[in-house]
Design goal:
By secondary structure, the chain is α+β, with helices and mostly antiparallel strands. The protein contains four helices and 18 strands. It folds into three domains: 92 residues, no CATH class; 79 residues, no CATH class; 74 residues, no CATH class. The chain is globular and about 65 Å long.
Length: 273
């Protein structure tokens, strides 16, 4: 099992990854996971700071690590000393050069497809690929890895080459999607960097909150807004409880008409610069 300090780092990264999944529409269940990870991870970090030898820390860390789920495994790969594909700040959980989510979708045999009928292998060349992050979907079903009793795949991967081998030949008309995660460009590129998540707990009765850090940050660079459940940032007044109005000039978020903060709600904002 990872150490308490490692779990604290994993929780921060898992919170970010879960937020990204929600923003991309890839998470249909447990959409309050970023909030849970923030609350439980913060409690664990506070206890670890104040009483690093507390006998209950290991159990608490195991609980937080279990909450991370699949994101915990990915966080381990991201923070691994030999990963080299992501520049990571362990004090904030910020992925300094960001993450990119390449996706290749094609129909076997179609013009421009990456595979033709009868093929069993495919090689993709890229940069800064993170090991162990490959997902493959065939005709709407996520493929298992390394099984012999059904259509599945195996792969080898370096930072620059992904080689996939299917256990059966592909056929014309088969829809295949290949996904993986890579580190964003290093300094000097136009790729934007994810920033440390912003938090605030507005007072009871307030209808808006201002983050000075977001002043003049455009709407398209707001990755997600989370307040007990995900809110979609929009650029105009709204009455939709699933939305929250954002004014880029001041970094201000206004609740939907008729809504107020209850005094115990944490609002979390992920963004890029």
């Amino acid at each position: 099992m990872p150490t308490v300090a490692e779990v604290i780092d994993y929780a921060k990264i898992s919170q970010y990854l879960a937020t990204i999944d929600i923003a991309k529409g890839n998470m249909s269940q447990n959409k309050d996971l970023p909030y849970i990870l923030y609350m439980e991870g913060s409690i664990l970090e506070d206890i670890y700071t104040l009483a690093p030898t507390d006998e209950g820390l290991t159990k608490a860390a195991n609980y937080v690590y279990a909450l991370c789920g699949k994101y915990g495994l990915l966080a381990q790969r991201i923070t691994a000393a030999n990963a080299g594909q992501v520049i990571y700040n362990p004090s904030t959980g910020q992925l300094l050069n960001g993450l990119l989510f390449p996706e290749y979708s094609f129909v076997v045999g179609a013009t421009g497809a990456l595979m033709n009928e009868g093929d069993t292998e495919l090689t993709i060349t890229d940069a800064r690929m993170i090991a162990g992050t490959v997902d493959i979907i065939s005709d709407g079903y996520t493929l298992a890895e390394g099984l012999n009793d059904r259509f599945s795949f195996t792969y080898t991967q370096s930072a620059t080459v992904l080689h996939i081998t299917f256990n059966q030949p592909v056929v014309n008309g088969q829809e295949i999607t290949i996904k993986y995660i890579k580190g964003g460009q290093v300094q000097g590129s136009v790729t934007k960097s994810t920033q440390p998540t912003l938090y605030d707990t507005p007072a009871y009765g307030e209808t808006y909150v201002v983050f000075p850090e977001l002043e003049n940050i455009p709407l398209e660079d707001i990755i997600s807004v989370f307040m007990q459940f995900p809110r979609r940032p929009v650029g105009a007044p709204t009455s939709n409880m699933g939305e929250i109005q954002y004014t880029a000039a001041t970094g201000r978020f206004d609740l939907p008409s008729g809504d107020i903060f209850t005094g115990d709600q944490v609002i979390m904002v992920s963004y890029m610069v």
